[in-house]
Specification:
With 141 residues, this protein is an alpha+beta fold. Helices cover 21% and strands 33% of the residues. The protein is built from two helices and six strands; from the N terminus they run E-H-E-E-E-E-H-E.
């Protein structure tokens, strides 16, 4: 709680002031939805292969998770993490529910902020292009 009471940005479940980016409902399976998400962010990766890796000595943007549970992209190196962007997927009877979030509030990303914007907007555009219903989406800058 802040000096002036509870912040309007501290809503449970996400919103401005948190790392929450958005949520969506996909008519596709979790595996297919993960591929759609990957298509939206692949151009921002240092290595566009769909290979999961760990941090290297040099700074880069890499995949740390890519499976039916979702995708996580991390920016940084073996010494520091600048940000991570995760899309978590849950199978439903009608397809897949998804939730996207940064590991910190968007305004707290100090290094490679432009990449967070491009990743978020690229994923949103790919989802919409695949007929996925966006429930909410706002990176919060």
């Amino acid at each position: 709680m802040g000096i002036f009471g509870r912040s309007k940005n501290a809503a449970p479940g996400g919103g401005r002031g948190t790392g929450y980016v958005g949520s969506f409902l996909s008519p596709h399976s979790p595996d297919d939805t993960a591929r759609i998400v990957y298509a939206g962010l692949a151009g921002q990766l240092s290595n566009e292969s769909a290979e999961v890796t760990g941090p290297g000595l040099l700074e880069s943007i890499y995949l740390s998770r890519f499976d039916s549970s979702g995708i996580t992209v991390v920016a940084g190196n073996s010494v520091d993490t600048y940000f991570s962007f995760a899309v978590d997927l849950t199978a439903t009877s009608g397809g897949t529910e998804g939730r996207a979030q940064l590991d910190r509030p968007a305004r707290s990303v100090k290094r490679w902020m432009g990449n967070t914007i491009k990743i978020s907007s690229g994923v949103q555009i790919a989802l919409e292009g695949a007929g996925v219903q966006i429930v909410s989406w706002d990176i919060g800058f």
